[in-house]
Design a protein that fits this description.
This protein has 467 residues and is α/β, with parallel strands linked by helices. It is built from 13 helices and 24 strands. Among the domains are: 183 residues, FAD/NAD(P)-binding domain (3-Layer(bba) Sandwich), CATH 3.50.50.60; 90 residues, Polyamine Oxidase, Chain A, domain 2. The chain has a six-stranded mixed beta sheet with strand order 7-19-20-21-18-22. A five-stranded parallel beta sheet has the order 11-2-1-15-24, covered by helices on one side. Strands 14-13-12-16 form a four-stranded mixed beta sheet, with no helix packed on it. Helix 9 packs across helix 12. Bound molecules: flavin-adenine dinucleotide.
Length: 467
């Protein structure tokens, strides 16, 4: 019909917005964006906590010292978004054992040396693997640690291991691919300094800057008729060649020549969206075998600070025999003086467990740890906030992780279109998957494929050689 758009984009997160912008810039302006929630930016999501703005989702930017500019970082710089260099170098002085006593510098340095040796050995092997394009060799990070005869065993070694890997990938070394982690493309490209965003406009203001460059806003609200909020897509029918029909939970039906799907891979692994016909087996395997972790920041606000503040105290670490048990703590006194906010990060199975129990239980567990470290007399928190990304049917996880043994061919299949159905989202970027900038570039790449097909009839992508 004359009124149907050329392209439907499902999801208005970073990748959906970046895909739409690319279409717009290439003069395909008759797209619509169907977004399940009432906001854009998806997994980039600020919230108010204890009178301050904190980030439930993406928090850190990489962008200083690498050979390439991170587009997110460049926008952040332009709008003077407040971000703070995260200094992890003090681990030797603020790592506590199970009883809440500080480890000696020598003990922590020993465990850090072990991690460094694994990283050096791993980087060499990964480079060898990557250079051999004939064989798609890989192993897990845990296998690498064994091969290097440096498998972390003590509570302290396992805490450092958790910090090094789970703290970045949100999954354990037994899951994670060696080849796709060392060296980390995100760090190699943009620099390995991590900048923590703490600004009342939120990390999401970066997405709004992009969106404002091509969508209509009235005051600070999107009023562009092409963006439709509260539209949960539940069906994608691509049975007719050259057109797709998309249905939403509230019974609306939309038609277009192409659809771009940007929901997280967690959503694609669930049955929220039904495909007609069902996606082919090569595609389903590519989707179901990729991995998405869970990364949970548990925020606590106190009546006063009872932890050390000042230079070198931003983080402290707790080594419980149960790996990843309230291990990584961060305080916000530099960012928000007088806020009395602490947060602790848990991942994966601990995240699932914490999501399923009452907040009161989590509070009690966290307080038991803090009382061991800072004494019995510290006050209880006045507030707690726990994001639940895994239970949320619109996310089902936080960001992807390349699992050991998942081939490059499978990842090509993950981003390959099926008929008129295109895929984007952070998980489709072969190097920067997991990160907000990966989502940005994924949107650009998928839009390019759609533009080539619609405008130049070049519909075959270089990577869909799966059939
Ligand atoms: P999303 O943001 O998930 O966007 C998809 C959109 O689709 C969402 O708006 C969703 O509501 C919508 N949607 C889902 N299902 C449907 C449906 N059926 N119908 C309609 N709409 C639907 N990245 C960094 O760079 N640095 C970090 O420090 C960092 N930390 C993170 C910490 C956490 C806790 C989380 C959650 C993420 C973090 N990330 C970080 C990752 C980063 O946020 C993501 O990679 C990126 O935002 C993903 O963008 P996307 O467009 O691919 O997906």
């Amino acid at each position: 019909a004359a009124s149907s758009p050329s392209v439907i984009i499902v999801g208005a997160g970073m990748s959906g917005i970046s895909a739409a912008k690319r279409l717009h810039d290439n003069n395909i302006k008759d797209f619509i964006i169907l977004e399940a929630t009432n906001r854009i930016a998806g997994r980039i999501h600020k919230t108010e906590f204890g009178g301050r703005t904190v980030e439930k989702g993406a928090n850190w930017l990489h962008g200083v010292g690498g050979p390439q500019k991170n587009p997110m970082y460049e926008i952040a710089k332009k709008i003077k978004l407040k971000s703070y260099y995260s200094d992890f170098s003090n681990m030797s002085f603020n790592t506590y054992n199970e009883e809440g006593k500080l480890f000696s510098k020598k003990e922590v340095d020993g465990a850090l040396d072990m991690a460094e040796s694994n990283e050096e050995f791993g980087t060499k092997l990964a480079e060898k693997y990557s250079a051999d394009t004939k064989v798609d060799n890989d192993m897990s990070l845990l296998a690498l640690e064994r091969l290097n005869r440096k498998e972390p065993k003590t509570a302290l070694e396992r805490m450092i291991d958790f910090y090094s890997f789970d703290g970045e990938q949100a999954e354990a070394p037994r899951v994670t691919s060696l080849k796709h982690i060392f060296p980390r493309p995100e760090f190699e490209l943009f620099g390995d300094g991590e900048y923590f965003v703490a600004d009342s406009r939120g990390f999401e203001s970066i997405v709004h800057v992009l969106a404002k460059s091509f969508l209509t806003y009235t005051n600070d609200t999107i009023t562009d008729p092409r963006v439709m909020f509260k539209q949960v897509v539940t069906e994608v029918d691509y049975s007719k060649k050259g057109e797709v029909t998309v249905k939403t939970e509230d019974g609306k039906v939309y038609q277009a020549k192409k659809v771009i799907l940007s929901p997280s891979i967690g959503v694609l692994q669930s049955d929220l969206i039904k495909f007609k016909p069902e996606l082919p087996m090569w595609k389903r395997i590519a989707i179901d075998e990729f991995s998405i972790g869970i990364y949970t920041k548990i925020f606590l606000q106190f009546p006063k600070t009872f932890w050390p503040t000042g230079k070198g105290t931003e983080f402290f670490f707790y080594a419980h025999p149960r790996r990843g048990y309230y291990a990584i703590w961060q305080q916000l006194e530099a960012e928000y003086p007088g806020s009395n906010i602490l947060f602790v990060t848990v991942t994966d199975d601990e995240s699932k467990r914490v999501e399923q129990q009452p907040d009161e239980d989590t509070k009690a567990e966290a307080m038991e740890v803090l009382r061991k470290i800072f004494g019995k007399d510290i006050p209880n928190p006045t507030q707690i906030m726990i994001p639940r990304w895994y239970s949320d049917r619109l996310y089902r996880g936080t960001f992807t992780n390349w699992p050991a043994g998942y081939t490059i061919q499978k990842h090509n299949n993950l981003r390959a279109p099926v008929g008129s159905v295109y895929f984007t989202g952070e998980h489709t970027h072969p190097e920067l998957y997991g990160y907000a900038d990966g989502a940005y570039y994924a949107g650009v790449n998928t839009a390019k494929d759609v533009i080539n097909c619609l405008k130049r009839k070049m519909c075959k992508t270089s990577y869909n050689n799966h059939i």
